[in-house]
Specification:
CATH class: Alpha Beta
Largest sheet: 7 strands, mixed
Structural class: alpha/beta
Strand content: 15-25%
Distance between the termini: 34 Å
Helix content: 40-55%
Number of strands: 9
Shape: globular
Number of domains: 1
């Protein structure tokens, strides 16, 4: 993929008024254990990805070394496969979306660990500040920034990495978004390394972001893990966040924490933006095409890796 092939979704340029947001109510329901279908990706892709993950022997934990070795053979320049985010991966990301197109030489990491983004920025002489999303007092005194980034803790086990990570990282993603919206300067950039965008919950978050930024895109650098659905959400041109939107996101976070405690994880927040909004033609097309493009690549890559693995063991 080249930079001119990256598809950007431009801002709706219509404010999310307090009246609109007041009509929204988080929808609770039984906690989902696995994504078997999605409104935001053709069912055939979801089915094939799940079948590939269930049947590919190279994705077993005991064949992890073979997975890394064969991946290295396919892309010799992709040197590290056992990390969720590599510096090399972010270098490729920068060539696609120019994440250094900022007005300063510092950034804030709102994720839970050091990432490839941080390593890349440090090589570019950026000063990177760390902040815990849960530390509201620190958020209040932290200086605003032109660049905020984060990395959700994707699952390590290769067999559970797909169509499960999104379910396990919803709260982390929401916390990072809240922190980013509090810290960003007008015109700033937010970058998040995350998993799928198949759920109504996470798609709802992206829907809100496309009102708050001039443009957003979802990119999977070709040197990222071949078998994995991880991707980068890049939001440029922060336009500010009204108090009623921020309060709504904070209320959703409180609801997630409350449900986790009161129902022992049996209930969860499933939807935060009504489906009629997520079905808006321009937004729906953007999300669906992005998901299907990455799912198609994931299927192709797993089949290719499995074929090479079986061939090497039959010789």
């Amino acid at each position: 993929m080249s930079s001119d092939q990256v598809e950007w979704l431009q801002s709706a340029h219509i404010p999310l008024t307090a009246e609109i947001v007041r009509q929204w109510q988080p929808l609770n329901g039984k906690t989902i254990d696995k994504v078997r279908n999605s409104r935001f990706c053709a069912s055939i892709y979801v089915k094939f990805v799940n079948e590939c993950l269930d049947n590919a022997t190279i994705l077993h934990q005991e064949t992890l070394s073979a997975l890394h070795r064969i991946s290295h053979q396919i892309f010799p320049f992709n040197l590290t496969y056992d990390k969720s985010c590599t510096e090399q991966e972010v270098t490729t990301l920068n060539s696609l979306v120019n994440i250094l197109d900022t007005k300063c030489d510092s950034a804030v990491n709102v994720g839970t660990a050091s990432t490839g983004i941080e390593l890349f920025l440090q090589k570019e002489n950026f000063k990177v500040h760390h902040i815990r999303c849960s530390d509201m007092e620190e958020l209040c005194v932290m200086s605003s920034s032109w660049l905020v980034f984060g990395n959700v803790q994707l699952l390590d086990n290769v067999k559970t990495n797909s169509f499960c990570s999104e379910l396990k990282t919803k709260q982390d993603l929401l916390e990072m978004l809240i922190a980013a919206l509090k810290l960003l300067k007008i015109g700033g950039t937010f970058i998040c390394h995350l998993s799928e965008l198949l759920l109504r919950f996470t798609t709802g978050l992206v829907y809100i972001l496309h009102y708050l930024f001039e443009s957003i895109t979802v990119v999977k650098p070709f040197v990222s893990r071949l078998w994995h659905p991880d991707r980068y959400l890049v939001c440029k041109g922060f336009q500010g966040c009204s108090t009623h939107i921020l309060n709504y996101l904070v209320a959703i976070h409180s609801k997630i924490v409350e449900l986790a405690a009161s129902s022992d994880g049996a209930e969860d927040v499933l939807e935060i933006v009504p489906m009629k909004h997520l079905y808006e033609q321009r937004f729906f097309k953007f999300i669906k095409q992005s998901n299907e493009k990455i799912a198609h690549l994931q299927i192709q890559n797993i089949i290719r890796l499995e074929s090479l693995f079986l061939t090497s063991h039959s010789c």
